[in-house]
Amino acid sequence: MAIIFTCPDCDYEVKAPDGTTGKKGTCPRCQNKVTIPEQASSPDSNTQHETETDSAES
């Protein structure tokens, strides 16, 4: 199951792959760097977008 969270900068709902908790990624909307949190509660909307994870950072 994917990790779903809200970008702290633009409030965009983001979906990140399992196993990426604690890693850094890029918000697909505002392009700011975000740290992927532990799984949050279920989102209210079905709009989910995947982050671009930075493979060099862990």
For the terminal residues, how far apart are their CA atoms? 20 Å
DSSP helix count?
Answer: 0
Tally of extended strands? Answer: 6
Strand order of the largest sheet: 1-2-5
The shape is globular
The succession of helices and strands, N to C, reads EEEEEE
Number of domains: 1
* Low-confidence blocks of residues: none
Please state the structural category. Answer: mainly beta
Beta-strand content: 25-35%
Q: Report the C-alpha radius of gyration, rounded.
A: 10 Å
Can you give the mean pLDDT? 82
Report on the biggest sheet.
Answer: 3 strands, mixed
Helical amount among residues, as a percent range?
A: under 10%
What would you say about this model in short?
A hairpin with a 6-residue loop joins strand 3 (24-26) and strand 4.
Describe this protein's structure:
The chain is mainly β and 58 residues long. The protein has one domain. The protein is built from no helices and six strands. The strands form two sheets. It has a three-stranded mixed sheet with strand order 1-2-5, with no helix packed on it. A hairpin with a 6-residue loop joins strand 3 and strand 4. The radius of gyration is 10 Å and the shape is globular. The mean pLDDT is 82.
Topology, please?
Elements: E1 3-6, E2 13-16, E3 24-26, E4 33-35, E5 49-50, E6 52-53
Parallel strand pairs: 2-5
Antiparallel strand pairs: 1-2, 3-4, 3-6
